[in-house]
Amino acid sequence: MKRLLPYLIGLSVALWLGGLITLFISLISIFRYNRGIGAQVGPILFSRFEPYQIGLGLIAVVLTFVWRMYSCSRAKKILLISLILAVTLSTVSYTYLTPQIMHMTTGQVIESGERFAQLHKTSEKLYNLLAVLVLVAFVSFIAAVRSESASGLLISQSTGKSD
């Protein structure tokens, strides 16, 4: 299990980061092509992506916590903190911001454009911070794996076999 943890953590964080990048590129492309379609599709993409990212984030947090129990390092600490913060932001977006934006864009609520702009700006800032946190987590993950490889925790130096 100890050998499997870094692979599963790396996969979770890579899928999350890749998903964020895909989401950003897709939305930017759609909005440049047709703003009206972007306004319709954007909230739907976010509402579908958010449970996915929360799931990946929770998997990564739990596995990182277990991985830290085997050996603790600064890189693992940064990894865990950035993941916890990113999952928290994802949850705030999913439970608070996205439902309000979805409600406004489906025409169920007549609000001022000012309120929508405020929510959109908050969501944009949150997602930018989220992307930075997931990137920090990914870099920290790489540093943790390199550190363990260099210290022989991933591969036993005396036998050449994995732990």
Q: What this model shows, in words?
A:
By secondary structure, the chain is mostly helical. It has one domain. 84% of the residues lie in helices and 0% in strands. It is built from 4 helices and no strands. The protein has helices spanning 4-33, 35-70, 74-105, 113-151. Helix 1 runs antiparallel to helix 2 and helix 1 (4-33) packs antiparallel against helix 4. The protein is elongated and about 60 Å long. The model is unreliable at 156-160 (pLDDT under 50).
Note the topology.
Layout: H1 4-33, H2 35-70, H3 74-105, H4 113-151
Return the structural class: mainly alpha
Query: What share of the residues does DSSP label as strand, in percent?
Result: under 5%
Number of strands: 0
| Domain tally | 1
Q: Over all CA atoms, what is the radius of gyration?
A: 19 Å
End-to-end Cα distance, whole Å, is 10 Å
Q: Can you write the helix and strand succession as a string?
A: HHHH
Mean pLDDT: 88
Note poorly predicted spans.
Answer: 156-160
Q: Figure out the total of helices.
A: 4
Described by strand count, sense and barrel closure, the largest sheet is: none
Give the overall shape, derived from the CA principal axes. Answer: elongated
Helix fraction, binned, reads over 70%
